[in-house]
Write a structure and sequence with these properties.
Layout: H1 9-30, H2 37-46, E1 50-51, H3 52-59, H4 63-75, E2 79-83, E3 91-95, H5 97-118, H6 123-145
Antiparallel strand pairs: 1-3, 2-3
Helix pairs in contact: 2-5, 3-4
């Protein structure tokens, strides 16, 4: 692979990742959110009261990273942590009303983002693209398992 070739497939892939990340950051910044926070919010939206360890496992993020994220989100009034009634060593995380409202706002924004990314794709192109991305993920996962 020629890494100096800016027209290469890998460079195009990286460009899409960078542009998408920048655009998502602009959208989330308007909501006072950071890019990693929406997946955490939606995880709690579906399963309120998870432990920090359960959140880390579901999002495939280190527990220390979750702790930092939750501290920031707690200060923003999006989540609250409470000790588990049965096991005082466990902190359970719950969405606040503001956190639920943020999820509702994000649910409105995500289809718009989706349309902006894939609006001019045919259904067949979307299916092909999805297949290729999944195949790419499998290739990387196989390499990681070695």
């Amino acid at each position: 692979m020629d890494f100096c070739n800016v027209e290469g497939l890998y460079q195009s892939f990286i460009k899409v990742i960078k542009v998408h990340h920048q655009y998502l950051h602009i959208i989330l910044e308007k909501l006072d959110l950071y890019p990693g926070q929406p997946p955490l919010l939606f995880t709690l939206y579906k399963n309120d009261g998870l432990s920090q360890r359960e959140i880390a496992d579901r999002l495939h993020i280190k527990p220390a990273t979750i702790t930092v994220m939750l501290t920031r989100m707690e200060k923003a009034g999006l989540v609250t942590r409470k000790q588990d009634e049965a096991d005082q060593r466990i902190l359970r995380v719950y969405l606040t009303e503001k956190g639920r409202e943020m999820c509702e706002e994000l649910k409105k924004i995500m289809p718009v983002l989706n349309e902006q990314c894939f609006g001019n794709f045919t259904e067949e192109e979307k299916e092909t693209f999805k297949f290729l991305l999944e195949k790419m993920a499998e290739n990387i996962e196989k390499t990681m398992d070695k």
